[in-house]
Write a structure and sequence with these properties.
Oligomer: heterodimer
Strand content of chain B: 15-25%
Mean pLDDT of chain A: 90
Strand order of the largest sheet of chain B: 1-9-8-7-6-2-3
Low-confidence stretches of chain B: none
Order of helices and strands of chain A: HEEEHEEHHHHH
Number of domains of chain A: 2
Strand content of chain A: 5-15%
Largest interface: A-B, 43 and 42 residues
Order of helices and strands of chain B: EHEEEEEHHEEEHHHHEEHHH
Radius of gyration of chain B: 22 Å
Strand order of the largest sheet of chain A: 2-1-3-4-5
Mean pLDDT of chain B: 93
Structural class of chain B: alpha/beta
Helix content of chain A: 25-40%
Largest sheet of chain A: 5 strands, mixed
């Protein structure tokens, strides 16, 4: 396993270096080790000689694709390495015209599961691993297929809770939030040029920072991501206070599947959930199930 | 500095409980995050966490709260009423403060206690007794020793508790500390020889090799350096570094109206936020992400020393821990000194 990862890393560096030799290459986004050597972080290689800093291993949690909307309009080609969850995000970004495919050099990486640095087990995000079927890669390090993983979902069963229990759970969970906005800033899908939480005129949200504000912030974010969240769980990783945002987004995905048979974020060509309308909608307001 | 006695670890919660009859007691308590610890109001029956975990939010939160009401206002027919807020209602004691966080208060004091004095901040400072926990180094990120802080008997502490076998040697440092010490007497006994010796030889593992010094030619020489591009490319601009930094102290003032009344409050702001420099007329003088990243480090390492005589970093290492990309101030300073691209790789 280790040898295999090492071999992939060598190949990744070769491919990135070859890409960066191109006169139109701007940068190649992959991962490098953090200074403590325990985790990885995104790395923007700009010169071929910098590729020796690029790594591929089980700690490559960050999603390089989430930087792409910020680079829209740059002169030159952007190289980006993507594993399965990143590939789903990339596919959504291309579909949403947040980045043009023709400006990208995409290196696909078959990922056999990430490791949670705290537990040493396979990261819980990997329970939802699914590779998009039709993303065209410029190069890959192997077959881009969904790996066969058994992952423990260590989470309270929200669906088994009563409404009151669930409300109490989320109140307690969201009250930990300090509104630092890391979840929003790290999210591939939060690419609005101006977020409503940054606007002061009109001022949509208060700045008081009490529980109601925190719930408002997370509810708005969750709804905006319904049908777009690809389950990369970067929000939960970035949160300094340990808010279980992965559960919030996962339950939205579960509900989208259950109520609207929608399982498309980053995987299929299904229309984005929030852009569809059906008279079969389960909500009676829309003429569905009475 | 006077050794006033030895306190058993098991007696601590009882002592804090007794103190809470007359004082507001603040101590490190388990937070909602798994294994997390934050400062909070101690209530009888609570369990205090004393080391080896650093609170994610620094001590500044109890002197400069994240959100702080300044006054409430209400309007009737012909009259507008202003009701000023009360910063603290009781004298307070904070237990288990760390040297880095206490040293940061001296830096923030420079800002808030200079004329014009910030009254709410001053009142909180005056009415709070600080009990430090001698720190053996709370994690690999710690480098307070590199910025000249004594994590064992930090300047600014009123009382110091030094961990020795199943308890603490308690030392008083200031007048305020002596007053608190008198209230602790019932829980103290005479320390044994070995306990005194252990307290004297208590050492910290804080790193002393983190270098925040200026690049050759000074900071102005690297103002336009491409190295800022490196430092800012991976930065997502979330601003956690400013939230968890014990010396960051910027705030914004908000008025919010509800019906015929409302409130004015101040709230922490962050130089990492796009809106930090947004002007009322719609112009933003610092619109580029890269310039915002540079501002944060320049403020810590250049402007604050110029204005107040000391680097605004106390070596707690929280920035590197909280950052989703684990970027710390020491790493950035090193990168700026070494302008050779990818020399660190």
């Amino acid at each position: 396993m280790r040898d295999q990862l090492k071999g992939m890393q060598t190949r990744l560096r070769e491919i990135a270096a070859a890409f960066l030799e191109r006169p139109d290459a701007l940068c190649f986004i992959g991962w490098e080790m953090t200074p403590d050597e325990k985790e990885t972080r995104p790395f923007f290689a700009r010169k071929p000689r910098q590729v020796k800093r690029l790594v591929w291993n089980e700690m490559c949690h960050p999603n390089p694709a989430s930087y792409l909307p910020g680079l829209r309009g740059s002169e030159g080609m952007i190289g980006v390495a993507v594993k399965g969850c990143d590939a789903r995000a990339l596919r959504e970004l291309i579909r949403a015209n947040q980045i043009e495919r023709k400006n990208l050099f995409v290196l696909g990486i078959p990922c056999a599961g990430l490791v949670d640095p705290n537990t040493g087990a396979i990261a819980s995000r990997c329970s939802e691993c699914q590779y998009p079927v039709d993303l065209d890669y410029d190069e890959t390090l192997g077959p881009m297929e969904t790996p066969d993983l058994t992952v423990e979902r260590s989470a309270p069963d929200l669906d088994a809770m009563s409404l009151q229990q669930r409300r109490a759970f989320w109140k307690q969970e969201l009250d930990k939030c300090i509104r630092c906005d890391a979840c929003r800033k790290i999210c591939y899908g939060c690419y609005c040029p101006e977020c409503i939480f940054e606007m002061s005129d009109p001022k949509w949200a208060t700045n008081r920072g009490d529980l109601a504000d925190k719930i408002f912030y997370h509810a708005v974010r969750a709804y905006h991501l319904a049908g777009r969240c690809v389950g990369c769980d970067e929000c939960a990783r970035a949160c300094p206070m340990g808010v279980r945002l992965d559960l919030l987004n996962r339950s939205l995905r579960d509900h989208a599947k259950e109520m609207f048979s929608f399982d498309g974020a980053g995987i299929t060509d299904e229309k984005p959930l929030l852009r569809t309308f059906s008279t079969e909608d389960p909500d009676p307001f829309f003429g569905g199930d009475k | 500095m006077t050794v006033i006695g030895y306190m058993k670890r098991s007696a601590l919660e009882g002592v804090l409980g007794d103190l809470s009859d007359t004082l507001e007691v603040i101590a490190p308590l388990p937070s909602g995050k798994e294994g997390g610890v934050e400062l909070g109001r101690f209530e009888k029956g609570a369990k205090v966490v004393i080391g080896p975990v650093k609170t994610m939010l620094p001590l500044k939160t109890i002197f400069l709260p994240p959100v702080e009401q300044i006054f409430r206002f209400s309007k009737s027919k012909n009259e507008t009423m202003l009701t000023p807020s009360t910063p603290v209602t009781r004298d307070r004691v904070v237990f288990g403060a760390l040297g880095c966080d206490i040293a940061a208060l001296a830096l923030i004091d420079e800002v808030f206690l200079r004329e014009p004095v910030d009254e709410a901040y001053e009142e909180r400072r005056t009415r709070t007794t600080i009990v430090a926990l001698a720190c053996e180094g709370q994690g690999p990120e710690c480098f307070c020793a590199s910025v000249g802080i004594d994590p064992v008997r930090p300047d600014g502490a009123d009382v110091v508790m030094i961990p020795v076998e199943d308890g603490f040697i308690v030392e008083t440092i200031t007048k305020k500390g002596e007053q608190l010490g008198a209230m602790l007497q019932g829980a103290l006994r005479d320390p044994t020889g070995p306990q005194k010796k252990a307290a004297r030889s208590f050492k910290s593992s804080s790193r002393s090799d983190v270098d925040l010094s200026a690049p050759a030619g000074g900071w102005s020489a690297v103002w336009e350096s491409e190295a800022w591009e490196d430092a800012s490319a991976r930065c997502i601009g979330c601003g956690i570094c400013t939230v968890v930094c014990p010396t960051c102290h910027c705030f914004d003032v908000h008025d919010e109206r509800h019906g015929n009344g409302g409130e004015r409050f101040r709230k922490w702001d962050s130089c990492m936020a796009v809106n930090f420099t947004m002007m009322a007329h719609g112009e933003n003088p610092r619109p580029q992400h890269r310039a915002r990243v540079r501002q944060r480090y320049m403020h810590k390492l250049v402007y604050f020393p110029e204005n107040h005589g000391a680097v605004a970093c106390v070596g707690c290492g929280r920035c590197a821990v909280a950052c989703p990309n684990r970027t710390g101030i020491g790493e950035v300073a090193a990168r700026m000194r070494d302008q050779e691209e990818d020399s660190d790789g």
